User: Which sequence fits this backbone?
């Protein structure tokens, strides 16, 4: 057998986002708290920008925004540069990049994991599923969505979602995307090559005893010495129970600002953008007039041109963000009429692909638009992604959302007899009377997701 070394050339096409497009997507995805901070920074740094005191358009649609943009972009004829091609100053670029690099821990975690994922997987379908899983991690790095729900949302086989989960769980830090503490610790031990260790057996077989520090019982059950158990426990204690904390800020108090307000007007529901939260910006007329003055210093005019380009870009991105959020929210209202008529118990199944079709935007745009966005309704404040659910078909033929089922389980347990709490099988039977047929295993998963103990641990004497 002979071997040879050689150099080979290959041509690959890669689709990359321009810096302008990347900034636009960052603005679309940014939560209201961070975007409000960015606007204040821009107002301080850019003399061409000011807050508009004019009464905003009522519920502006895409056409009115496009018309407004066309008027503003007439200035580009004077500036001698098209919208997509302008270059910001190094100072502006550093300031913007610093802001977006200072995003919340969950966003940093998502970005970091997605980067790792792109290096180890080139299968588009698997990448889509894995990124969806990453998007469903909480701040502590745990996966809180059920695999069945993800499979339904994406219209993919359950086996492929399992493969995607294994892929995400292979990323750094070890323990990421675990569904419970046991799995989190086992993943870390596995990464250390300790699958056959005493530590692995203790976590897998004796975690309830470990939590209660019943070391003697663990030693007896596993037929090892107490000293061996104590040494193994010391190793287990060195593991990270919250792998997402590596990215920082997971203990930081979360401030919620509402982007949208939904109110009832007559027989219909109206969606409004929270104008008090996000002031409207415009170009300063005084400085615009200076640009038209032929006698002004050329260096001053060049400086103002640069600031105008930057200001127009931000204004356009903010208007497009507002328009996208309004369209997505209106599609949600249209799809979740029963929720708005009767309350949370009437949530219907809804996927991002359905909303994408209704709004005429890409599914990934919907995903970015709803990320960390909140809406005020007559029933309280909800995260936009709350309205997206897979679901089950009732015996009546009607579809019911998973979130509604979880709320029904919570209600049943809240009203149970403390001395005779409902078993998972009894919950199955109670839901069946409501026309919802579910397996006991699924009920157990939902109960665990809701952080509700099994019946024997809920019993009160």
Assistant:
């Amino acid at each position: 057998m002979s071997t040879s070394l050689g150099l080979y050339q290959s041509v690959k096409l890669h689709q990359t986002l321009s810096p302008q497009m990347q900034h636009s997507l960052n603005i679309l995805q940014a939560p209201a708290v961070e975007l409000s901070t960015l606007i204040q920074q821009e107002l301080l740094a850019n003399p061409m920008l000011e807050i508009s005191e004019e009464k905003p358009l009522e519920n502006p649609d895409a056409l009115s925004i496009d018309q407004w943009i066309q008027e503003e972009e007439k200035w580009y004829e004077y500036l001698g540069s098209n919208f997509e091609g302008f270059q910001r100053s190094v100072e502006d670029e550093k300031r913007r990049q610093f802001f977006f690099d200072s995003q919340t821990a969950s966003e940093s975690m998502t970005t970091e994991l997605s980067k790792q994922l792109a290096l180890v997987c080139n299968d588009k379908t698997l990448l889509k599923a894995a990124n969806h899983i990453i998007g469903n991690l909480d701040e502590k790095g745990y996966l809180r969505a059920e695999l069945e729900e993800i499979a339904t949302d994406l219209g993919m086989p359950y086996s492929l979602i399992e493969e995607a989960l294994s892929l995400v769980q292979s990323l750094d830090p070890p323990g990421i995307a675990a569904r419970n503490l046991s799995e989190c610790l086992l993943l870390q031990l596995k990464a250390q090559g300790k699958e056959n260790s005493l530590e692995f057996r203790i976590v897998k077989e004796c975690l309830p005893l470990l939590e209660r520090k019943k070391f003697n019982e663990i030693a007896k059950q596993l037929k090892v010495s107490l000293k061996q158990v104590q040494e193994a426990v010391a190793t287990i204690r060195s593991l990270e129970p919250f792998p997402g904390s590596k990215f920082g800020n997971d203990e930081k108090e979360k401030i919620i600002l509402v982007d949208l307000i939904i109110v009832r007007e007559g027989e219909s529901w109206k969606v409004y953008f929270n104008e008090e939260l996000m002031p409207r910006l415009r170009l300063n007329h005084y400085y615009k007039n200076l640009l038209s003055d032929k006698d002004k210093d050329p260096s001053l005019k060049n400086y103002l041109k640069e600031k105008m380009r930057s200001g127009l870009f931000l204004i356009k991105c903010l208007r497009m963000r507002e328009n996208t959020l309004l369209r997505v929210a209106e599609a949600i209202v249209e799809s979740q009429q029963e929720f708005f008529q009767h309350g949370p118990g009437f949530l219907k199944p809804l996927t991002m692909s359905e909303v994408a079709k209704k709004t005429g935007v890409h599914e990934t745009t919907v995903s970015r638009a709803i990320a960390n966005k909140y809406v005020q309704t007559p029933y309280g404040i909800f995260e936009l992604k709350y309205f997206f659910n897979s679901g089950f078909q009732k015996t009546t033929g009607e579809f019911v959302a998973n979130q509604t089922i979880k709320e029904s389980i919570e209600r049943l347990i809240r009203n149970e007899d403390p001395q005779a709490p409902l078993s998972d099988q009894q919950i199955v039977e109670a839901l069946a009377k409501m026309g919802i047929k579910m397996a006991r295993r699924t009920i157990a998963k939902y109960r665990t997701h809701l952080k509700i103990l099994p019946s024997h641990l809920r019993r009160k004497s």
